[in-house]
Amino acid sequence: MQVIKKLMKMLCCMGIMIAATACANKEVVKKDEPLGTTHTAASMPAIPFAEKTIKPPQQENKIDKPAAAPVESARQAPQAVKVAAATSDLEKIFFDLDSSNLSNDARQVLVKDAETMMQLNNLKVTIEGHCDERGSAEYNLALGERRARAAMQYLITLGVPAAKLSVVSYGKEKPAVVGNTESAWTKNRRDEFVVQR
Amino acid sequence: MKFMRITLKLIVGAVLLIAPNAVSAQDSFIEVTAPGNRQLKLAVDVPRSVDTVTPAIAKELGDVITFDINMSGTVAAASREPATGTVSPPLAQTEFVAWKNAGYDLLVRSEYSLKGNELTVEFRLFDLPNQKMMTARRFLGKKQDLRRFAHSFSDEIMLALTGEKGCFTTRITFVSTHNRNKEIAIMDWDGHNALPLTNNGSINLNPDFSRDGREIIFTSYKKGNPDLYRRSLFSTAEIPVSNRKGLNVTGTWSPDGTRIALALSKDGDSEIYTIARDGSNPVRLTVNPAIEIYPAWSPDGTRLAFVSDRLGKPQVFIMNADGSNTHRLTGSGSYNVNPRWSPKGDRIAYVRQQGGSFQIYTINVDGSNDTQLTTDGSNENPSWSPDGRFIAFSSKRSGVQGVYVMRADGTGQTRVGQGKGSASQPAWSPRY
């Protein structure tokens, strides 16, 4: 089992690297590269939000304590950037009607998400399962959880530590888009990945 | 606190009953359902003031009784000016012949007195052909108790006419979006006196009354996870009952009030459990990799209906209360949910998805006599009145989702409550 897991991890990593090099999108983060401050700074409206609650790593704390306030906030910034970037990078996945099966598209997204999550050091991720408005509200609570768990299982096989992940189902109670069109339903049958701050 | 006060008042009022000088209720039943007979007609005379005339009070007293009795479907009620065309005489001088000649079989008369905020109302029900009083009640309380007094006499009218007390003094709890969140609210069965219960700004779902009607349980996301809470109607404290990992949803009290059946997913997927009132001592009833959710007790507490998708799509199943002897309720329909067992135990109301909408059905417990009750709009979450005469449900037929009430045969579908926002997931209280 261990061997298979490791092999899978390696394959996934390779997949990521290939994907990363294949597509020239600068938002894709390479594995070996620590999340930098430069290229994410532009796409970073969430800093003030994240800043409040993110604890800097221990050693940084020690250094920061005697330092003056401006220095401190400057030191915190990279970590905040990392979380903000990660949160916006964690892509949603979508499901077919009344199904919790992971499509090929969803699996590809999860591979990318797993990679981001594994760089989130001590931060945890809640997987939110959601449904469209057509099923019964109560059945959808269970269906949403099934969707969240499907993603969680896959992320674990991709190497994300189980302890990092939790699930919550909102059924059809928190639609991403309000409306009774096919397009709204498609957008609402989803898992969202929320970094716990 | 307000409820407590009202309840106390009601008790005070009820103590001041008129001595039953009429024949005993048992002797005074009249046949209201004989086949071939026309429906009996009941007149509700304009309530009479013994001091200062207050037209608004008179109208409301009459309207409540007329609405209740018409909704019951037992007799046809109408609010009427005095049959003699003059001012109503005192109750003791009721003109039986004039009312009978106007085409009525039954007559409700009442007198009220309002002094400051103190309201006294006396009601009488007369059998016109036999020129006798069937029942009478006198209530003493505050002006705001007016509707409750009238509902209470409607209950007595039902007792006199059918041998079973009405349930017009009951309430319905429901999910309301009045403040844009999903909060639990409560209203009288006819939609009046709506009040918010929760105000936690989160998502609150599936309220259910305790057997004494003094508490509700519901699921709330207020701490992030869908956990089960309990709260009294008389205080604002929301007490956690089950906050196990995963779902703690669709909780419903057992008929004897000692257990709560609910769906928990703490062991990986949604399964039916029972727990004690305080949330301890969980007993797992289903073991299946499929989804199991929405338990519903039989009135004797020996069986549970629930929803499972073990055959692919969600379907209603029945099992013994120990989890044994599971079988499917109905072979019809590809998506059946929301079972609720009738108080008499013979029928189960449930919801079927068909053609892009939901419709309410009832079916015998053995699976026979499957009957569709709604066709208009999309209709969900049936809940029986404690006498089994009515079913409350939510409907989107008028656009915004609202709570409706119908007779158990599907007739008389009427919206109750017209508050701000949507109203859904109604649950009917027991009798108080």
Features:
heterodimer; A: 197 residues; alpha+beta; 60s Ribosomal Protein L30, Chain: A; 4 strands; globular; B: mainly beta; Rossmann fold; six-stranded mixed beta sheet; four-stranded antiparallel beta sheet; 4 helices; 30 strands; disordered N terminus
Task: Describe the overall structure.
The complex is a heterodimer of chains A (197) and B (432). Chain A is globular, with a radius of gyration of 18 Å. Chain A folds into 2 domains: 56 residues, no CATH class; 105 residues, 2-Layer Sandwich (60s Ribosomal Protein L30, Chain: A), CATH 3.30.1330.60. Chain A has 8 helices and 4 strands. Chain A starts with a helix and ends with a strand. A 4-stranded mixed β-sheet of chain A has the order 1-4-2-3. With 197 residues, chain A is of the alpha+beta class. In chain A, β2, α7 and β3 form a beta-alpha-beta unit. Chain B has 432 residues and is mainly beta. In chain B, the strands form 7 sheets. In chain B, strands 1, 2, 3, 4, 5 and 6 form a 6-stranded mixed β-sheet that branches. In chain B, strands 9-8-7-30 form a 4-stranded antiparallel β-sheet, with no helix packed on it. Chain B has a 4-stranded antiparallel β-sheet with strand order 10-11-12-13, with no helix packed on it. In chain B, α2 runs parallel beside α4. The two termini of chain B are 16 Å apart. At the A-B interface, α7 and β3 of A face loops of B.
